[in-house]
Design goal:
two-stranded antiparallel sheet; single chain; 66 residues
Length: 66
């Protein structure tokens, strides 16, 4: 699964730590999501999209084979 968390954070001008606090996870969780090593739960994906004010599909995209 691909994601645009890093891009969305840049648009909103927030750090990994700030995003993590807003969605109640660790900064390391945000880091592993950005690097594609962790796929978030549906609830976490919805929270992240809501913070950015975009759809889940804008932030997260399935890749072929997912």
């Amino acid at each position: 699964m691909k994601n645009s968390i890093r891009v969305q954070r840049a648009i909103k001008n927030i750090t990994q730590a700030e995003l993590a606090e807003l969605v109640n996870v660790s900064r390391q969780t945000i880091n592993t999501m950005e690097s594609g090593k962790y796929i978030p739960s549906t609830v976490l994906a919805l929270k992240i999209a809501a913070i950015f004010g975009v759809s889940v599909e804008t932030v997260f995209e399935l890749e072929e084979g997912d």
